[in-house]
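Bumping with the actual sequence this time:
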Amino acid sequence: MAVTILAIESSCDDTSVAIIRDGYVLSNLIANQDIHMSYGGVVPELASRAHQANIVPVTHQAMLKAGVIAEEIDAVAFTRGPGLLGSLLVGTSFAKGFALARNIPLIEVNHLQAHVLAHFIFEKDKNNRLPSFPFLCLLVSGGHTRIIILKSQLEMEVIGNTIDDAAGEAFDKCGKVMGFPYPAGPLIDKLADVGNISAFKFAKPHIKGLDFSFSGLKTSFLYFLRDKLKEDPDFVEHNKADLCASLQHTIISILIGKVVNASLQTGIREIGIAGGVSANSGLRNEMRREAEKRNWNLFIPEFRYTTDNAAMIGITGYYKYLRGEFSSHDVTPLARY
């Protein structure tokens, strides 16, 4: 008998709803909140208010697109955390209400685990290629940078973590120093494509093991610009592409180096990337080059599954449903999960 999951994602500023049936995506809709661009970052109060306005119409449209009615839904999966507490509260409350009204199970999902499980989403009429286990995945986003080993869909071990800032945060904060709008990552990626990666050198932290650090790189970049702007007030404008290329190359080389070490230490050649920064074209291209050189079986998610989306929540909920891992209705959202 088919298993149909309604999935809700509201961890930050995007309201997303998806319908998953037996692991296949029937719909995956996202309502964005462009208002935050004016503030240079996500404003939590504005985000939660927008979620309240968006969640009902987005759910309605997701069900229409999937051709599914409420009576066909077997469970509701939702992001419990980590994320912005106010935003999570909206999604959690809606999921509880829907599940109570239909008397169906409620499934809490860890947002970070879901990013990794985006690799296990099935799509109709496509050659769905899935990783084998053990699977080594670099999870890289605005708030997190981790190396994770998957032993099964729901059994994960973190073997590397950031000790301070995440890679995505380094992109955005360095972009802000250059006067770029939020989020800066996509614009840096675009400009880096026409810049010289060797134009400038920035500090690379020497962190033992498989952990990451990006705070030193941010400081190095800030001081470099401060000194150059004293000499030439238009330095950023004159060197925008080269600055982006050099910065991106530095961040990517740090990420790739740790993944290579993790693969060598574990012997795992099933390798993937996940999270918002996995949409970066430079990172994707370097991973492909490294995979060819080292004979990795590489998995790179579709662009639409790299950013926050409910399909990844739904596929995680689907596997938890099969194992009977349900939540009670006194569950509360967690900013840190």
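The tokens above came from a reply further down the thread. The longest helix spans residues 240-266.
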